[in-house]
Structure formats: structure tokens, C-alpha cells
Amino acid sequence: MLAFCGFETFREYSQEEDMSRLFGTDGVRGVANKELTPDLAYKLGRVGAFVLAEHEHHTPKIIVGCDTRISCNMLESALVAGICSVGASALVCGVVPTPAIAYLTRKYGCDAGVVISASHNPFEYNGIKFFSNLGHKLPDSIEDEIETIIHGGESKVPMPVGEGIGTRQYREEALMDYVDYVHSTLTTDLSGMKVAIDCANGACYEAAPALFEKIGVSFTMINASPNGININKDCGSTHTGQLCEIVKCGDFDLGIAFDGDADRMLVCDERGEMIDGDVIMAILAKDMKARGKLSGDTIAVTVMSNIGLDVFAKANGMKTAKTKVGDRYVLEEMLAEGYSIGGEQSGHVIMLEYNTTGDGLLNAVQFMQVIKNSQMPVSENAKIIDIYPQVLVNAHVSNKNKYGFLEVPEIAEMCKALENEFHGEGRVLIRPSGTEPLVRVMIEGKDQEFITEKANALAKLIEKKLLEEK
After folding, report:
1. Residue 223 has pLDDT above 80, yes or no
2. Does domain 193-274 bear CATH number 3.40.630.30?
């Protein structure tokens, strides 16, 4: 069995992050028109294009897509104005899934891609995320360079006039170019399958029906009528109750829930029971191994993945490679070590053979292909992995103290005591939030009642000790 994760995991998160930094793990995010303003969007487009021009040594071509938030038109206009102001060309795609931009950046030979989206967050938030010409998130060094110039070096950014000004081009074919590509990855006829699809009133509301109609499956769509403010609202991969009820009451092979920008997806089986990203990765990885496609016989996952995935991997001649929380760290590990699949419990799964980021639509059809070829229902496929009960409790602390839990003897002693009680059949992970005054306590083990009690007790101890002034 797997050992308790110990203090090495804790130390990974013990260094305080720079809270003034614009770029987080998934681009620049904030409340639209308050934190993420048109002025900031303009600067990001302007400086981003300038920095890329310096590194590419030619006038860059940048592709831009967005989700369905009411603020996207405002931010897109500002971002594109910034891109054009330095003489770069902007290819505007409108509403498309985030992974479409990662793919189309490569297909159209662009120097970068930009997505305006805040993923699974409520509609009032928005974000701006860059992809490199290879469809990867920009390295920290490039993001740092953009941020440094925005904070004080804009005088070096040129302001061309006349014919030197950049242009905006609309690429109406972009969505279907992406849909056609996803369809091309299939090798199995999926006709005859019946699926319920929750589009989260988000970026895949047009792409999903276009894809599933092309594939020839029978499908029912829900939450595919965006109005600018209903994205992710009580729907999609963060609120799956409606989808589960529809599948449970209908004659479906499975249900699929996307998030707002469709870079992740979750599945409910034919009984209306949800399975998460860990189970999805297990099913996909077992099929890939059987076909000789699982590089290094390894799945790249974050420290938040369930112990059950490690147990499954070991039992099936595989390994797991652990990273910090965040899909960018999973991708970095995959690229560095040559792994072919990785992801998170949230359903953000990267299949590197096909795309360079999590791709909900692509993963959905690949998953359906495995199910169809297995000639077994989703629930039977899911039995290959036992998911251990997992409890996550937030301890409310001060931002000043939230990185100091390793220095408190009582917290360390309680963790050590839990290590001894688990005897290798459970683990504790303590992780400060990067943005909120919280410390997240996650405990896994075989006994739900036991781990719930211990997680609440540990969270209370952390709150008591870290709310106190030091």
C-alpha cells in the first residue's frame, strides 16, 4: 500500500506566493471591469504581442477566442486593439473551446493564441490566457517579461502609424476546423450510442452539437443556451445533479458534463452516477497500455489525485508521476518525461497525442470510443479502480500566517499521529490557498467517518493556531 504523504508534500507549498503578480497558474484572472479591466486587457494584448515579436523576430500573428461571458466582447475589443497597436495581426474566432485555440494556433501557423475565459468560475469573472506557437501555456519567463513591461516599461513598446498598424481578421471557419480535427481522431464508429450532454452554457454550446452530429450518435443537449450571465450557473462539470437525473431517468449510455471553456469534462455512467477525472484517466490509460500507447507506463497526476489511482496503477503495471496542483504542472511533467496522458480529478485530462492542453470534447469522444470497444457499460469499466473516501475541509486563517503551519509543533504532531494510525492506508495533504486566506486539509482513507472526524479536527487546530498573531 501507499505510504502517508508526509511533510515533503507540505513543503512544496510552504513558500509564500507573490500576491501582486498578474499571472497566476492559468493566466490573468479577476472580476471583469474591476480587476480585469479593458485597460489591462489592452496592455496585455499590446505588450504580449510586442514581447512575442521580440522573441519571434517578425511581426506576430495571434489567434483570439473566448467563451460566452457578457464581458468577453468588451475584453476582446480591448485585447485586439492592443495587439493591432503594435502592428500584429489578430485572427478572431469568436466563441470556441479553449483547446480549440491551442490546436488552431498550430494549424494556422500563429505565433501565439489567446483565450478570454475564466473556465469554471462564475460569469462576473473573466481571464486572459496565452498559448505559445506550439499550443503550450507561455513559460514563466515570458509571462514575467510581459508583466515587467506592463508594470513600468511600456515606453519601449512601439506605436506604429499608417500601414504599420495591425489588422483584425475574422476566422468563421475556426470552430468547424476544430470539430473536424476532433472527429478525425476517432477510429471506431460510435453510431448507436446515446449520450446526454451538459454544455454549461459555455464555450462548447455550438461545438458540441456540431461534433456529435458529425459522429452520428444520438444526443440530448442541456444548458446550451448562453445569455452572457448563465455560464456555469448550476450546471456543467461543477454542478452535475441535473445531468445525472436526466441520465438516470432516460435510456442513455452515459452523460458528459463540460465546464465553461470546455477544457475539462466529467462523466456520469448509465445509472446516473458520477465518475471523476481519476476514474476517467484510469479507463483511458488501461486502454492506452493495451494498445502500446501509454508512454513510460505512467500517468501524470497532481498530489490531489486519489490514492485509488496509485493502487490501480500498481496493480496494472503502471506508475503515477505526481506534480503540484494545476494542469500547467501536469503538462510540464508530461513534456519533460514524454508521458502521453495526465490530468486532475476535476476532469482536466491531457492526451498529448492529440492536443497540448485539456480538451473536453476530444476526451469525451476518446472515452466513448473505449466504452464502445469494451462492449461493457461505463459502470462496469469504472470497476477497474477503487476510489478511496476523501474529505476536503477549509481552515480559515489569516493570509499572514497561512504558510506557517509547518512551524507549529501541535499541527506537526497531529499529522504524525495520523500517519501512524493510517498504517499506509491513507494520507494527509495540507495546502495553503494561493489566493484566499485558507489552508485546505485533505485526508483520504478507507473509513469515511474516521477521515471526516480527523479532517475537521485538524482544520480546527490549524484555524486556532494560524488565526493567532505570531
Report:
1. yes
2. no
